[in-house]
Amino acid sequence: MNINWEVNYPKGLIKYIDFFRKKYFQYDIFDNIVGQYIKEHSQFEPKTICSLGSGTGRHEVELAKLGYRVIGLERNEESVGIAKAYIEEQNSNVEIVKCDFLKKDELDTVMKQIGEVDAVVLLFIPISIESYAKAVKNMSKWLKKGGVFVADNFAYEEGFDDSNLVIESNVEVVDSPDKSGYAVRFNYYEYKDLIVNWDAVYLYYDEDQKLTMKRDHDILDIIPVENEDPLKLDKKEFEILENRVVTECNQCIAPPHMFEYLMGRRKL
Fold it and tell me: What is the band of 186 on the pLDDT scale with cuts at 50, 70, 90?
């Protein structure tokens, strides 16, 4: 598919989405796998990682614990604020910069201050595979030769058939990290032709104790793990690396019937 879409969150919602990420996502396990993948495929000892779409900073803090210097680029102002507070709370040295990595001029302006990096990661960002490819191209001049680009993709579990429309739904409840509140999420999934439309309706009491309902909509581009070259990059510039299926983590953060794997490219 040649489709691009943007990720936009309703104002004030990211804090509550993060409740669910904290509950389900095993950052310490997952990001250790990412770090190992980077070291295994880099042609030198990697020290600096640029994380595209760094969100609330949780992946970045875990990667920094592995000894990397980590710079996160995030366009959403609310996420930047939450990330900086979390980084300070964790006494981490992660740097967060407000930047839209899909806008090349904006990215270049920021990266001129940062300089070349050893690795680039793009983790759990619900954008199209075309936007993934655009991200690699935009960052190409800032990634050192022999360095790697790593993204996580989703594929369907064996035997799942989305040739006809499949609809599922569920409900989740999570406490706030300090146990002072909670949020409810109503999930509605439509699976069809390697695209998942995910509607999530959140119900929670806001900081003024007002009952609030907000909707988030994500589109997930499903990339079969056997698809050798979904990014369609210039093979003279990027070498295709072996995919790495992630089996160590609970598959709770994504919709049902899906698993996660790492896709890598090495700059030549």
Answer: very high
Count CA within 13 A, CB hemisphere, residue 194. Answer: 14
**What is the rounded distance in angstroms from the CA atom of residue 234 to the CA atom of residue 145?**
14
Say which residue the tokens 């032709």 belong to: 193
Strands 195-205 and 211-221: antiparallel
Whole-prediction pTM: 0.93
Nearest CA-CA partner of 55 in 110, 27, 11, 14: 14
> Most distant CA pair in the chain: distance in Å?
57
- Residue 143 and residue 116 in contact, taking contact as beta carbons nearer than 8 Å: yes
CATH of 14-153+224-267, one of 3.40.50.2300, 3.40.50.10610, 3.40.50.150, 3.30.70.120: 3.40.50.150
pLDDT digits (tens, 9 = 90+) for 2-49: 455 456 677 889 899 999 988 888 999 999 999 999 999 999 999 999
Closest of 91, 97, 131, 124 to residue 20, by C-alpha: 124
